[in-house]
Amino acid sequence: MGAQGWISLHRKMQNNILWQDKPFAKGQAWIDILLSVNHKENEVLLGNEVVKVEPGEMITSIRKLCDRWGWSNTKVKNFLKLLTNQEMISYKSDTKKTVVKVLNYSDYQGLDNCKNDAKTYQKHNQNTSKTHQKHTNNNVNNDLIMKNNENKKKKFKIFFEENVDKFENYLQQMSEAVILKACKISVEKDKPLAYCRAVLNDWTQKGIEDIDDLKTAAKNAKNKDSPDNCDYKWKDHFIDDWDRFKE
Predict the structure, then answer these.
(1) Structural domain count of the chain
(2) Mean pLDDT estimate for the chain
(3) Domain, as residue range, for 62
(4) 9 or 41: which carries more pLDDT confidence?
(5) Does the residue 136 lie in any domain?
(6) What pTM does this model have?
(7) Where is the DnaB/C C-terminal domain (predicted)?
(8) DSSP assignment of 96-126, as one string?
(9) What is the largest CA-CA distance in the chain?
(10) N or C: which end of the chain has fewer CB within 10 A?
(11) What gap in Å lies between CA 92 and CA 90, rounded to an integer?
(12) Would you call 32 exposed, middle or buried from its count of C-beta atoms within 10 A (0-12, 13-18, 19+)?
């Protein structure tokens, strides 16, 4: 499998003493072409003629390349033909100049590709990080909810078991489900037994005997405050899934 990826190679490398050591190898000459062509559109003055140079092109001469690479005239021409046959470049020569064009220059011109790849990589990392963070947060939130529910369940059991004998009189007037509902409200609001009894007394006065009565009373109250001796609101009375606290 061939080499993959790219590196950013600065043109100042052409000024390095090691790079300038001659004669050039063929691979070095090829890289020298890549480093020498224009990376953006430009215009150059050639005698009395303004010549437009496209990205990936350079204007030179066979003689200049001979001097630059330490090669003979024949070797330079043969090398340019080799690159042409390999569909790596195209070139045209006349009496004044040689125009060399790197084919598919955008594949070698790494700046834009680098930025795009970096942005894609960064975006991917951000999305992955956000997704991971979202999943982590969801897991943490779910754990906290489960833990909170377990704590409430334990508190409810303790509250009910410690005060079960206090509710015997209410069982003669209302169902066990209603009493459990009052206990749950007290636990949810972190209130003592006195609060629970105040709720039950208020419901007794309102003639509430079962859960259906409680639902009806809660709906009719429309969030109005209860009597002064109870600081709860009727909208707090009906909390879904209270049955899970009966265990």
Answers:
(1) 2
(2) 77
(3) 11-110
(4) 41
(5) no
(6) 0.46
(7) 166-215
(8) S-EEEEETTGGGT-HHHHHHHHHHHHHHHHH
(9) 118
(10) N
(11) 7
(12) middle
